[in-house]
């Protein structure tokens, strides 16, 4: 894609005919559900957020570059609040670990109304997370989903230790271990650092899970209405590296 395409907001194309019926049914069902979030009004409160998925990713990474260099923008919170009082149209959705050191709005130098952020320790796509992302895509027209893992993830590390020791963690933590375990198992015989490999695999596993989440996310991804990508946040530098 050329630079002009990346920088120029465009109106996304409608779905292909083969997905129209199932997508319409899904949309109708979702529209009938109670509104858990603010929906976009007829005119998007942030027209600059109506962008192609590639442009959304480019914008995220430009924001991360500013954050890494320490030249983040000054945000006008008062006028942002007023503009967003009637709705929202975020240009990206982020499924991030809950780790307090990550903070997606900061690390991508974004403002209110720009990111639809879901956070859970281990950044895995539970049914509830998938449902929220469906809302972000179908109702809010978010063109990009980023699964964001990070170095030194305690959720992945705890899963590794629980598996090695054969212990069961207290409380509800076993549900977290069960969600992250497939990624650890997939890389436990690979060379290199197990934690690093498992963190990367956990992001990749959940990217693929979201791409395959029928009917909504799969249809949107297949028709290139959205992109689903993964990234790893480096704790010291703040840089997000996308998975290839
Ligand atoms: Zn984490």
Draw up the topology in text.
Layout: H1 3-7, H2 20-32, H3 53-69, H4 77-83, E1 92-96, H5 104-107, E2 115-119, H6 127-138, E3 144-150, H7 154-165, H8 173-187, H9 194-211, H10 216-222, E4 227-233, E5 240-242
Parallel strand pairs: 1-2, 1-3, 3-4
Antiparallel strand pairs: 4-5
Write structural notes for this entry.
The chain has a 5-stranded mixed sheet with strand order 2-1-3-4-5. The N terminus is likely disordered. A hairpin with a 6-residue loop joins strand 4 and strand 5. The radius of gyration is 18 Å and the shape is globular. 38% of the residues are buried. Helices cover 45% and strands 11% of the residues. The chain has 10 helices and 5 strands. It is α/β, with parallel strands linked by helices and 244 residues long. Zinc ion binds next to helix 7.
Identify the notable features of this structure and list them briefly:
5-stranded mixed sheet, binds zinc ion, 244 residues, disordered N terminus, alpha/beta
């Amino acid at each position: 894609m050329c630079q002009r395409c990346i920088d120029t907001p465009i109106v996304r194309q409608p779905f292909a005919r083969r997905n129209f019926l199932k997508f319409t049914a899904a949309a109708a069902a979702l529209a009938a559900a109670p509104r858990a979030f603010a929906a976009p009004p007829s005119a998007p409160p942030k027209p600059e957020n109506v962008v192609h998925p590639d442009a959304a990713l480019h914008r995220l990474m430009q924001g991360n570059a500013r954050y890494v260099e320490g030249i983040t923008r000054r945000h006008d919170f008062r006028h942002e609040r007023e503009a967003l009082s009637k709705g929202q149209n975020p240009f990206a959705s982020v499924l991030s670990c809950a780790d307090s050191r990550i903070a997606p709005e900061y690390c991508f130098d974004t403002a209110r109304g720009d990111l639809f952020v879901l956070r859970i320790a281990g950044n895995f796509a539970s049914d509830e997370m998938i449902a929220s992302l469906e809302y972000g895509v179908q109702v809010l027209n978010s063109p990009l989903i980023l699964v964001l893992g990070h170095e030194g993830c305690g959720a992945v590390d705890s899963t590794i230790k629980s598996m090695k020791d054969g212990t069961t963690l207290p409380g509800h933590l076993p549900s977290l271990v069960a969600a992250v375990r497939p990624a650890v198992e997939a890389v436990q015989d690979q060379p290199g650092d197990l934690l690093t490999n498992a963190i990367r695999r956990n992001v990749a596993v959940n990217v693929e899970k979201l791409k395959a989440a029928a009917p909504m996310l799969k249809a949107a991804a297949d028709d290139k209405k959205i992109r689903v990508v993964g990234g790893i946040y480096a704790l010291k530098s703040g840089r997000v590296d996308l998975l290839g």
